[in-house]
Every structure is written in C-alpha cells, then in structure tokens.
Design brief:
Distance between the termini: 37 Å
Number of strands: 2
Strand content: 5-15%
Strand order of the largest sheet: 1-2
Order of helices and strands: HHHEEHHH
Largest sheet: 2 strands, antiparallel
Length: 142
Amino acid sequence: MSYSISVSKAILVVIFISDKIRQRMFDFISAQMISKVLNIPKPTLVKILRNLTHAGIIETKEGKNGGIRIAKPIGKITILDVFNAMEQEKPLFQTTFNIAAEGKRPSNAQKSVANLLEASEKQMKLALAKKTIQDILEELDG
C-alpha cells in the first residue's frame, strides 16, 4: 500500500489558497481557478476539497462571491493535518504478511520488518507535524 498523489496535491491546494488570501488577492478562491492553475482534474479536486472541509482545514461558500478559503490560521495547519485529511489513518506499509513458512524465525522476521516499517512511518509523521503552511509560505517569501 502507498499514499495517493492526492496528498501532495492537497498540500499544494492549501498552500495556493493560503498564499492568494494572504496576499489579499481574494476572499474566496474558486474551485475552477484552483483546478486550472494547479492542473488538478475536477473530480480529484472535489475529493481533495471534501476531505479538507471535513477535516476543518478549509471552508466553502456557494454563490456569486463564493469559493474556498482557509478555515483556521495557517500557522496552526501542519502538513500532517493535510496528510491526515487525505489518508485518514491508512498505513503506508502493508505489515500483515501471509507467508507459508512457520516457526520462530519467520515469525520474528515478520515482526522485525513490521516494527521497522511502522517506526519509519512514525518518524515521517513527526517530521510532517513540525512544518506548517505558514512555514512554507515564509520560505517562499525568503
């Protein structure tokens, strides 16, 4: 199992919306603009927006002056928040092995590999939790 490309696209969507609003270019960004500028197909964008809305990262408004905007301060939105909105606690690695070999050595080998992969994923998530959308926007300004 692996994470979907939607994770990366969702991060870019949040950065794009945050940057445009931070620059006071828009109050709300249209989904059409996001789709066009970021080259994200509309069905994919709809899924991304739905997940980000459900996670409380963005809010939407219908109508002539509607669109999408960030729902909370960008300094409080971590990359892990966006990641979790998209992947919803799915593991990166498949750690349930279905091997035919039985016994202590094969069992210990499976445990060792599972522990390594789970620890690696945990470290990745800790790194994602340290970076906010605001951090990324400040890097763009730098």
